[in-house]
Amino acid sequence: MEVRKTDKKKLLYGTGNAAKLDAMRRSLSKLEIEILGLKDMEEKPPAVPEDGNTPLENARQKALAYYEFYKIPVFSCDSGLYFEGLPQELQPGVHVRTVGGKYLTDEEMLAYYSGLAKKYGDLRARYWNAICLVTEKGQICESMGENLASEVFLLTSVPCARVRQKGFPLDSLSVSIQTGKYFYEMGQEQTDRLAIRDGFLDFFRSLDF
Questions:
Q1: Which residues lie across from 82 on neighbouring strands?
Q2: How far, in Å, CA of 130 to CA of 80, rounded?
């Protein structure tokens, strides 16, 4: 008689952002993985510099630092926001929340990015996402493939009237090109498909998780 293994593999997701943790749990719900967040750990996480030039460099920095500290399998992700047609000096890249050396609050982010859209018109935008996993043996598996990127969407100057979700302030300015709806006007599954698609699921499946 075959005995089915029921214990889920535990992985630490190197983030303290509850919204990102929930989104990743939804994305990987088909796999036998229990995802822990930094707030689930007894020890307070170390401060980790995120001074890379690309999402992958930042994801790697975080994953390695958390692995060295907690000594358990851990993965970290990072994103960069890029606009079509804007000059390089206006591309947020990995510094979505930092403008002119200042770390922006949610309200300041909305004011800044809605101002860009007002000046240049609705902006065609895309998030490029990266992931780095450090296994129990210290091996590094990582990707910043096209399948991890979001779909192209519009960033507009007029915010959605609905209440913002903490952790994703720019979703109130983001509009799906396919549906013409704000991200906040769509169901959670539709929003996940636009922002995450199946790239993270495919990444872990390729590792036999």
A1: 126
A2: 9
Could you tell me which residues are beta bridge partners of residue 143? 131
- Cα dihedral 163, 160, 54, 115, rounded to 10, equals -120
- pLDDT tens profile 5-31: 447 889 999 999 888 899 899 999 999
Residue 94 and residue 77: Cα distance in Å, rounded? Answer: 11
- Tell me which residue of 133, 151, 152, 153 sits closest to 143, measured CA to CA: 133
Q: Would you call 101 exposed, middle or buried from its count of C-beta atoms within 10 A (0-12, 13-18, 19+)?
A: exposed
pLDDT digits 0-9 by tens, 159-182: 998 767 676 789 899 999 989 999
180: left (phi over 0), alpha (psi -120 to 50) or beta: left
Query: Is beta strand 123-134 parallel, antiparallel or unpaired with respect to 153-155?
Result: antiparallel
Helix runs in 71-171, H state only: 106-120
Nearest to 115 by CA among 170, 178, 73, 56: 170
Beta bridge partners of 141: 133
CA proximity to 14, closest of 24, 4, 5, 6:
24
Residue linked to tokens 């995802």: 35
* Predicted TM-score (pTM) of this structure: 0.85
Q: Is the pLDDT of residue 189 over 80?
A: no
